[in-house]
């Protein structure tokens, strides 16, 4: 019997690990998750995911209500290795530290959709230069969100290298370089706009102590299968969203989209179910993205947004927005500092 590949399970572990860490740090998780329907009683339901808009909204709320000046680093240091799913054992049994970094770059999106690591340059045989690039979204990333991912990655790489990796960071201007440096115990500068990591390690290409080649091949094959499943699923969802998107989005129906794709309504429903979603959820997610793009990025009046999306009137849009996010449009903009 083959192994069922479900990339959503890893993201689910990551989000639940994040929620547990928020709770341990004294944050009101119920308040943070207001309006996120897939999270109930402080946990993300099995098979469900939090989209990028929801994840970033969660982080903006967390930073606004936390007493920690560097919440992202505090969270990243406390996240359990289990939160990364199979990524931790894959890196632990990698042939070398260099390979582990390359695998982290390749499979990071299985954990979090917030951004990607990229290897920029090889300074020497014992050094790597990486950049963390946040994904584009209608909701801007909070720097602490990115710092949580970077910190968790540094913690993982430190664990598998027996603390031999030496890191130095160049972070966007305005961040607390001194405080972050004290928490991470590494040199930190805050200048420019990028998240740059320099990783140095004697014996970058030497075998990792205690690694198991069989476990490495097993987890590598599994990770590759998950990545293929994620990419295929995302490609399908992007195709459906392309046919849904346009003027009067709120009036788009499943029969019209199914006909545009060339399948029956029932077939489309089944394929969406295979991806852990539904036409209603996908449409709602797209409406949220477009609403925030018009509200936050373009700063349009509420009446214009309601009309562009196809709502009958402003009050109907207001009710929909509050059902999505648990707050009014004006309150939402205040929460994310827009």
List the helices and strands and how they pair.
Blueprint: H1 8-24, H2 29-32, E1 39-40, E2 43-44, H3 52-65, H4 71-78, H5 87-92, H6 97-107, E3 115-124, E4 127-134, H7 143-160, E5 166-171, H8 177-184, E6 188-190, E7 195-200, H9 213-244, H10 254-261, H11 265-274, H12 279-297, H13 302-309, H14 314-325, H15 329-335
Parallel strand pairs: 5-6
Antiparallel strand pairs: 1-2, 3-4, 4-7, 5-7
Helix pairs in contact: 4-7, 12-13
Commentary on this structure:
- Keywords: DNA-binding, Transcription, Transcription regulation.
- It holds the Pfam family Arabinose_bd.
- GO terms for molecular function: DNA-binding transcription factor activity; transcription cis-regulatory region binding.
- This protein is of the alpha+beta class.
- It folds into two domains: 8-214, Alpha-Beta Complex (H-NOX domain); 245-335, Homeodomain-like (Arc Repressor Mutant, subunit A).
- It contains 15 helices and seven strands.
- A five-stranded mixed sheet has the order 3-4-7-5-6. Strands 1-2 form a two-stranded antiparallel ribbon.
- Helix 4 runs parallel beside helix 7 (143-160) and helix 12 (279-297) packs antiparallel against helix 13.
- It is globular and about 65 Å long.
Concise account of the structure shown:
This protein is of the alpha+beta class and 338 residues long.
Order of helices and strands: HHEEHHHHEEHEHEEHHHHHHH
Compute the average pLDDT: 91
Shape: globular
Strand order of the largest sheet: 3-4-7-5-6
- The N- and C-terminal alpha carbons lie at a distance of 52 Å
- Secondary-structure arrangement, i.e. CATH architecture of the largest domain: Alpha-Beta Complex
Work out the count of structural domains: 2
Beta percentage is 5-15%
Main beta sheet, described? 5 strands, mixed
Low-confidence stretches: none
Going by CATH, the homologous superfamily of the largest domain would be H-NOX domain
The CATH topology label of the largest domain is H-NOX domain
User: What is the overall number of helices?
Assistant: 15
Task: State the helical fraction.
Answer: 40-55%
Q: How many β-strand stretches?
A: 7
In the CATH scheme, the class of the largest domain would be Alpha Beta
- Secondary-structure class: alpha+beta
Radius of gyration using CA atoms only: 21 Å
